[in-house]
Amino acid sequence: MKVFQKLRLYHALLAFSALAAYATGGFDIVHPWIGYAVTCIIVFRLTWGILGPNQLRIGRFLPDLASLLRIRTADDPAIARVLLGGVVATLLLVTGTGIALDQLSSLNPATEARAVPVPRAEFGARATSARHVATSAGASEANDDENETWLVELHEFAANMMLLFVGLHVSYMLLFRRPLAGYMLFRPGRKQRIA
Prior knowledge:
Blueprint: H1 3-23, H2 30-51, H3 65-69, H4 77-102, H5 125-176, H6 178-184
Helix pairs in contact: 1-2, 2-4, 4-5, 5-6
């Protein structure tokens, strides 16, 4: 398989997996597994970008300040790089917050479901001590819930921003970089220079 065919395959797998993860956001069982698949695809691409051929190095796809200052037309490759940088940044934020929320529990089949403790009748000094421990545990759980709430909101915000950047990226590529967009969407034709 040629390098550019591998790049198209990577692109298709990442796009499909990221959209599937977004679509399954409400499903607690499937969503984390798809999220970990996206993470594996990202790790593969980072490794490939560091160790792979020069034309596929990650730095070639991200904008630099000098190219941003030289933008004069709407079809400038630097605009495509800025949109791609937005997709990359939000995708990394989504996967990072997703892993932090899941804490790798979906990958551990021995993880037990959270059980509700059954209260026991305690008398005397043990009862006072048990009430104190239960109160402390309740406060700790409330604090954990607060910490998790802002992380959930950040995860959802980043997912929505990723979808926005993906839409802008696809729209821009179809409007101004149609040959390259067609090539990435598996349309037969001649090879395009990766900008």
